[in-house]
Design goal:
single chain, Gyrase A, domain 2, Isoleucyl-tRNA Synthetase, Domain 1, Rossmann fold, 3 domains, 21 helices, globular
Length: 574
C-alpha cells in the first residue's frame, strides 16, 4: 500500500489541486504526534478566499477516510493524516525485506542524462579539494540511476594548456630530483608548483630580463606542445600525461568511483577551433582586438571570449566542441556539469552561446555548482602549493584508522585491519564531502570526519555493524512476527523513517542533492540507535523478538542501500 499516494488521492478528491502540486507540498511532520503526513493549506487561500486554519477545518469535515488512513486532524493551517499503524508497519518492513536489492529504485525514466564531473588536470596534484567534486559527482550518478534515470558518467580531463607547459619547462630546465617509483603524477604537480614559484621569484626580482626569458621559454614550450607535427616535447607530454592518468585511476579505484567515458581536452581542441571558425563565418562570433567573442550583453551576460587573439584555444573553445560532441554522439537529453560555484557566470555564458548556435538542448544543460573545500588556513591552490595532497591524506587516514581498529580488535589479521580501515576511511571522506549542502563551504577537518561518534560516515557504518552483531548472536533466526507489536514511539519513528526512503532518493536525484540521502541515512542510524538502546531485541519474548529483528534487518538494508548511493560500503564488523 502506498500511503503517501492515498493521502494525495484524498486531497485531490477534495481540492482543485493537481496530484503534482499536492505531492510537492506534502510533508512528513517532525513528530508522530502530528501524524504521518501533513499538508499545509496556504496554497488554497487565494482560490477559497479563506484563512488556512479555516480551510483545514473545512477539509477535515469533507473527507471520507479509508482503511489505510484512520484519522485526519486540523492543526492550525495544517491537515495531519494518521495511517493504520499495524498495516503500515507490515507494509513498510516487508517491502524492504522483499526488495532487498532494489528497494527505492524508481521506474525507468525516458531521460538520458550525462553527468560530467571530477575533471582533473594532468600534471597537477590531486588534492583534498578534488574529493568534493569526485564524491559529489559519483553520488549524483548513483542516486539518479537509483531513481530510474539513464545515466552516463563522464570525466573531462585537462591534458593541454599553459600549466603543462610550465611543468615540462621546469622538468627539462631545472629538475634534479630522481623520478619517484610511485605517485609520479603527484610529483608532476610539485614540479608545476615549483615552476610557478620560479616564475614569481624572477618577476619580483630586480632582474626583469630573467623573468622575460623564462616567460618566453614557457611560451615556446606551449607552442611546441600545440604544434601539429610530432616532436620530442610531445613525446615527453604523452609519457608524463600517462603518469597522471595512472595516478587518477588508482585514486578513483580507492575512492570507489567509476566513469563510463573519459573525454580529453586534447581530443576536442582542434574541433573547437573549427567550430568557432564556422560560426564566425555565420556571423555569430565577432573579432575584437584580434580575439573572437560573442556579445551577450543583451542577456546581461557581458562578452564571452571563444578564441584568443593569438589563435590559441580557451576553455570555452573546447567546451563548445565537447557539448556538440555529447549531443551528437550520445543523443543525451540533459547534460549536467558538476563544477565549482566560481564558474557560475562562465556556464551561463556557455549555455547561452550554445543556444545561439542552434543547439536545442542547450536549455537542458545545467551547472551543478558547489562551494569550495577550504583548509583552516584558507583556500587551497595547486599553483601556490598550499594543498593537502591525496597521498598524504590517504596515508594519514589509513594510519589513524589502523591504530583505532587494532585497539578494538587485537586478534584481527593485518589484512582484515587494512581492509576495514580502507572501507571506513573512504566512507568518512565521502560522507564528509557530500553531507553538506552544495552552497556551503567545507572546512576540511579529518579528525572530526574519522570519529565513530557524531554526524559522520563511520557512525552510520557502525550502526550497520551493530545490526550484523545482533544477527550473529541470533544465529540468523527471526521467528514469529506480529507487526502490530511495534507500538512504541521509538519503533514507530524508525518505521516511518524507513518508509521515506524512496521519496528521499527521488528528491535527491531530481534536485542533484545527495546531501539529502546523507542526512537521511544519518537520521535512520540515529533513530535505530535510539531504538536499540531503549528496547530489547534479542531478549524480547515471543513474536516481539522476531518483529524487532525484522525491523533491525530492514534498517540494515535501507542503511546499506542509502550508503551505497553515496559510494560508501559497510564493513561486517567495526
Amino acid at each position: 500500500m502506498d500511503y503517501r499516494q492515498e493521502v494525495i488521492r484524498l486531497l485531490k478528491e477534495n481540492t482543485s489541486l493537481s496530484e503534482s502540486q499536492i505531492d510537492d507540498s506534502l510533508e512528513v511532520p517532525p513528530s508522530l504526534e502530528l501524524g504521518d503526513f501533513a499538508f499545509p493549506c496556504f496554497s488554497l487561500t487565494k482560490e477559497l478566499k479563506k484563512a488556512p486554519p479555516v480551510i483545514a477545518e473545512d477539509l477535515v469535515k469533507k473527507m471520507t477516510l479509508s482503511d489505510s488512513i484512520t484519522r485526519v486532524e486540523n492543526k492550525g493551517p495544517y491537515l495531519n493524516f494518521f495511517v493504520n499503524r499495524a498495516d503500515f508497519n507490515k507494509d513498510v518492513v516487508e517491502t524492504v525485506l522483499r526488495e532487498t536489492k532494489y528497494y527505492g529504485k524508481g521506474k525507468l525514466k525516458s531521460k538520458k542524462v550525462m553527468i560530467e564531473y571530477s575533471q582533473p588536470n594532468t600534471h597537477k596534484a590531486f588534492h583534498v579539494g578534488h574529493l568534493r567534486n569526485a564524491s559529489l559527482g559519483d553520488s549524483i550518478v548513483r542516486t539518479m540511476r537509483a531513481a530510474g534515470y539513464k545515466v552516463t558518467a563522464a570525466n573531462y580531463i585537462g591534458d593541454v594548456g599553459t600549466h603543462i607547459a610550465k611543468c615540462l619547462w621546469y622538468y627539462k630546465k631545472f629538475n634534479k630530483e630522481p623520478l619517484p617509483i610511485n605517485d609520479k603524477g603527484e610529483w608532476l604537480g610539485k614540479l608545476y608548483t615549483a615552476a610557478n614559484k620560479k616564475l614569481k621569484d624572477a618577476e619580483e626580482s630586480d632582474e626583469s630580463d630573467v623573468f622575460d626569458k623564462y616567460k618566453a621559454e614557457v611560451s615556446e614550450t606551449l607552442k611546441l606542445l600545440e604544434a601539429p607535427e610530432s616532436n620530442e616535447l610531445i613525446e615527453l607530454w604523452k609519457e608524463t600525461r600517462q603518469w597522471s592518468l595512472d595516478d587518477f585511476h588508482d585514486i578513483y579505484s580507492w575512492l570507489n568511483t567509476d566513469f563510463d567515458i573519459d573525454f580529453f581536452e586534447s581530443d576536442v581542441e582542434k574541433e573547437g577551433k573549427q567550430l568557432v571558425e564556422e560560426f564566425q563565418k555565420k556571423g555569430l562570433f565577432k573579432e575584437s582586438d584580434g580575439a573572437l567573442i560573442v556579445d551577450l550583453k543583451e542577456y546581461d551576460l557581458d562578452v564571452f571570449l571563444v578564441l584568443k587573439s593569438d589563435g590559441n584555444s580557451l576553455y570555452s573553445t573546447k567546451d563548445l566542441a565537447l557539448a556538440a560532441k555529447k549531443f551528437r554522439e550520445f543523443d543525451i537529453d540533459t547534460s549536467l556539469y558538476v563544477v565549482g560555484s566560481e564558474q557560475r557566470m562562465y556556464f551561463k555564458q556557455l549555455f547561452k552561446t550554445l543556444e545561439l548556435m542552434g543547439f536545442e538542448r542547450a536549455k537542458d544543460c545545467k551547472h551543478v555548482a558547489y562551494e569550495l573545500v577550504m583548509v583552516p588556513s584558507g583556500k587551497m591552490s595547486s599553483r601556490d602549493g598550499n594543498v593537502v595532497l591525496f597521498s598524504q591524506l590517504k596515508s594519514q587516514v589509513m594510519k589513524t584508522l589502523e591504530a583505532e581498529i587494532r585497539s578494538r580488535h587485537d586478534d584481527w589479521s593485518d589484512q582484515k585491519v587494512m581492509h576495514s580501515a580502507k572501507i571506513i576511511g573512504v566512507g568518512a571522506l565521502r560522507f564528509g564531502m557530500v553531507s553538506q549542502d552544495l552552497n556551503k563551504t567545507i572546512v576540511f577537518d579529518l579528525n572530526e570526519w574519522l570519529s565513530f561518534e557524531g554526524e559522520t560516515g563511520p557512525y552510520i557504518q557502525y550502526a550497520v555493524a551493530r545490526i550484523n552483531s545482533i544477527f550473529r548472536k541470533s544465529v540468523g533466526e527471526i521467528g514469529e512476527i506480529d507487526y502490530a507489536l511495534l507500538n512504541s514511539s521509538e519503533e514507530q519513528k524508525l518505521v516511518s523513517k524507513l518508509a521515506a526512503y524512496p521519496e528521499i532518493v527521488s528528491r535527491a536525484a531530481d534536485d542533484q542533492k545527495p546531501s539529502l540521502v546523507a542526512r537521511y541515512v544519518l537520521d535512520v542510524a540515529q533513530d535505530f540507535n535510539e531504538f536499540y538502546h531503549q528496547k530489547q531485541i534479542l531478549k524480547a519474548e515471543g513474536p516481539l523478538r522476531g518483529t524487532r529483528l525484522s525491523l533491525a534487518l530492514a534498517t540494515k538494508i535501507v542503511l546499506t542501500n542509502g550508503l551505497n548511493l553515496l559510494g560508501i560500503q559497510c564493513p561486517e564488523e567495526m
